[in-house]
Amino acid sequence: xxxxxxxxxxxxxxxxxxxxxxxxxxxxxxxxxxxxxxxxxxxxxxxxxxxxxxxxxxxxxxxxxxxxxxxxxxxxxxxxxxxxxxxxxxxxxxxxxxxxxxxxxxxxxxxxxxxxxxxxxxxxxxxxxxxxxxxxxxxxxxxxxxxxxxxxxxxxxxxxxxxxxxxxxxxxxxxxxxxxxxxxxxxxxxxxxxxxxxxxxxxxxxxxxxxxxxxxxxxxxxxxxxxxxxxxxxxxxxxxxxxxxxxxxxxxx
Length: 253
Description:
CATH topology: Rossmann fold
CATH class: Alpha Beta
């Protein structure tokens, strides 16, 4: 469904992705993990065509995004639903208007049809009676769920989650992870999530891939990933201060 082949990308002379290759099968849930600055968000943005690579190819559903015109790419993106960090809701709009926004922009649905679809999406994320609230009136977990509802409003084939539990306490993080699992099961989407939270990664993933220095250094099922012989992977899983990830860092003693 999604294939990144030998993708490289630099910003201001700094290479962020360095020959990265990764495949995501139709219906699969892949979680990409790695430390800050390893290229997780950049990888996600390549998948949806928000960033074009310096070299390499991004193939989605048989189409090479690198060869698409801006107009074709904008239309193709309707096959994606993306939930940004912390929900990225419009502060000036209430919950209903936030979820209705892509429906009004990208479909010819009537207002009655839009209202029905918004309620369907809110029901799927277990939020009721919040349509008139502003984002500032919602808890962090509720804002994430509204962001999820907006992401699924166009009935996408592919869902992308950018750090869905960042800033949430462990209990709410677990609830949000459970909701992602439920959405995957009910919608049958192909899903890619980026996170540094290994508990969330192991809970929701069919496969976990780790980025380091712009490349995938490990990929496998949660059990395979846990059993990795790579010391970088093991240090990241265990959250240890000492190890190859930090041995040359200023954080080391």
